[in-house]
Fold this protein.
Amino acid sequence: MLLVALAIMPLAVMTILSGIREREHAIKASEENLRRLTGMAAANEAQSLEGARQILVDLASVPDLMGDTAKCTSLLSDVLDRNEGFVNFGLIQLNGDVTCSAVPLLHPVNLGDRSHFRRAINERRFIAGDYVFGRVIKKHTINLTYPVIDRSGKVLAVVFAAMDLEGLDTFINDINLPPGSVLATADARGTIISRRPDPERYFGKRLSEATLQGAATAGQRAVTIRGEDGVERLHTFARVGAPALSDYTVTIGIPTETITSSARHDQLMSLLGLGATTMLALLAAWLVGDVLIVQRVRKLMGTAERIAAGDLDARSGIAYGSEEIGNLAQALDRMAASLQKKEAARSLAERELRAADQRKDEFLAMLAHELRNPLAPISTGAHLLKLLHSDNAQITQTCSIIVRQVDHMTSLVDDLLDVSRVTRGLVSLSTQVLDLKRVVDDAAEQIRPLITARRHRLLVELPPAPAHVKGDHKRLVQVVANLLNNSTKYTPEGGTLRLRLEAEGEDFVLTVQDDGIGMEPALVERVFDLFTQAERTPDRSQGGLGLGLALVKSLVELHGGTVQAASPGLGQGSTFTVRLPRHSQDVVLAAQPAGEQSLEGGAPLRILLVDDNVDAVHTLQLFLHAAGHQVEVAYSAGDAFELARTVQPDVCLLDIGLPDFDGNELARRLRRLPQASGATLIAMTGYGRQQDRDTSMAAGFDHYLVKPVNTTQLSDILAAAAEANIKR
C-alpha cells in the first residue's frame, strides 16, 4: 500500500499543480475578458455622449435658438420629442439664467453655480457635467453643455441637455455579466451615474474608497476588491471616451468565486478522480497484498514459530512459485524437513545413547554384584579367622591385610557406582546442620590406616569454634576422605599431609596440602575430570580408577560449594581447596554417629541364611555360629520357603539374585507365611543402586546390606532383633 501511495504521489502533486495553473489561467482569461467588457461598456457610453454632443453642436448653429423665446422653446421641445433618453434641453445665458427650456419652467432657474456651465464658457468646448438631481425635472441626470459662439468667436450663451441616468444605463444593457457582477460608471468626483444592478439605489452615491483607490492606481491591470456587500470581485477600469469628451470612468467587477468556480470544479473533479483512483489502488493493494503477501507471511511466521516450538512436522502450505514468498516458503519447508531428519537422527542417537547408558549402568551394577559376591566370603572369612585366632599375631595381621584390601576394593566399586549416580543426577542429599570439625575427624579416622601404612604424618588444624554448615554428613566425610586418600596415593612414604579448616568471609575453607609429586599445569586444569590420574611409579600399590576427585567436585557442588586444585609444579606437592557456605541460623547439630559395637552380646537367634554362593554361605554361617546363633542354610528360594515353615526363623538373611526366583519375591512370600511373618528380613546383595534398594524395601525387607556385608553393621541389626524378641 505504501508503494502504491508513493507511486500515486507524483500524480497527486501534478493534479494539484495543474489545478493551480488552471485557476491562474482562468483568472488571466477573466482579466482579459473583463477588460474587453469594460472597454465595450465605456465605448457604448462614449457613443451616447458623442450623440448628445452632436445634438448640442447642431442646436448651437440654429439661428432661432438665440431669437424669440417662444421659437426657442418650440425648437427645443421638438428636439426633446425626437430624442429618447433626454429629459430636457435648454439655453443658459451668460449670467446663468435659463431663458429657454423644452420643459416649461414654473419659476426662474439660474445655473450659474454649475461647474459644467462655467467650464463650457471657459474651455469653449463640449462638457459632460457631474451627477446632478434636476431642479426642474426632479430626476437623476447629468448635464451636457456646449457654448454658442458667434462668428467673431464670442460666447453668447450655453446650450445644455439633461440626460436621464436611466437612459444612460440602457445603452449598456446588451453587455452580459455573470451573476453577482457589478457594472458602474462614475463621474470625475467618483459619484455613481450608472450602475447594474440596482441603479436607483446607488445613483448619486460615491464609489467605495477601495474602488476609487483601485481606479486611481490600476491602470490596465485588474485588481481584486472586496465590496461593501463582502463579496470579493475582480475589477477592471476604463475611461469613457477621450478626455475632451468626458471625465467618466467605467468599472466592471466579477466575483472571483465565479471566475475560479469552473477551474475549482475541474480541480475538484480531478482530485475526486485522483482520490477514487488512489482508494481503489490502495484497496486493490490491500486485498492483493493481504492475499498474496500478508496472509502468506503470517503463514510463514506461524510455521516458523511452530518449528521453533519443536513441531518439526510443520509446513507452510504455500504453493511454491517463482516469486519471493514462494521461494521463501520453499526454503522454510526444506529447512523444516532437514531439521526433522536431523532431529530424527538425533533422537535415534539419543535413544541409542540412553540405551548404551542403561546398558552401562546395568553392566556396572552387574560388575559390582559380581565383584562383591567373592569379596563377601573373603571379608567374612577374615573376620572369622581374626575372631577365632585372636591369640595368633601372624593370623591377626594377615586378616587385617585381607580386610584392608577388601575394603579398598569395595571402595573402588562404591566410587564407580557413586560416579554413575552423580553424573545422572540420581544422588539425593540428606542435609542437616552439622559441624565440619566432626566431618574432618571422621574422615581422618577413616583414612588413618592407609596413612599409617605409608608412614605419612597428618597435621590437622581446626578452628576453636564450631564450623557449622548444612549438608550430608556421610557425603562430606566422603569428600574429605577422598581428598586425603588422593594425597596419600601421590605422596612418597614418610611425607607430610596438612589439613586445615578456617573461616573466610561467608564460607568455611577446607585445605588439603601435601608434599607429594605435584602436578603439571595441564593436569591441574583437568584433575577433576573422570578417569584422570597422574602417572605413578610401580612401587605405589594403592591403585585407583581416577574417580575420587570427580566425585569430590560433584558432591561439593551439590552442597553449593566449590573446589579448586593448585600445584607449583612437579615434585612440589599439591593443594586442594574446598569452599562451603557457612550456616548462620540457629544451629541444631545432628547426632553423633554411633560407634562400633561388638559382635558378641544379645540372645541367640534362629537365622535362615539363603544364598546361592556356597563360599559366602559357609563363611557367614561360621561367623554367625561363632556369635552363638542357630543358622539354617538354603541355596534356593524354594528350599528357603519350605525350610521357613519348620524353622520359624527370627531373622532371614536373603540374597536377591537366587536361581529359581529372586529374593524380593521370597520376601513377599515370607511376609504372607505365618511362621515367618514377624521375622526381621535382611537383604544381602551385590546390587547397590538406589532403585534396587527401593524395590527391596517395597517387597518387605527391613534392612538392605550391600556385599561384602559390614559385620559390625550386621551385628547391630542382629542385636536389635534379639532385643525385640525378648520384649515380645
Summary: Residues 536-543, 590-601 have pLDDT under 50 and may be disordered. The chain is about 50% helix and 20% strand.
